[in-house]
Amino acid sequence: FMLSTEKTNKVLGVLTIIFTLTIPATVIGTFYGMNVALPGGIDEQITSIFGPYTTFFVV
Length: 59
Description:
single chain; about 75% helix
C-alpha cells in the first residue's frame, strides 16, 4: 500500500509541474481568443485598452 501511495505522489507531482508550466500559455491564448477589440487591432479606441486589460487584472 505504501509503494502505491509514493508512486501516486510522484505522478501527481509531475502532473502539477506540467500543468503549472502550461497555465501562462492557456491564459494568454484565452485572453487573445476573446471576441473583443484589443490594442493594436483594427478598432483603436480607448475602451479597447481599458476594457479587456482592466477585467484581466481585476480577476
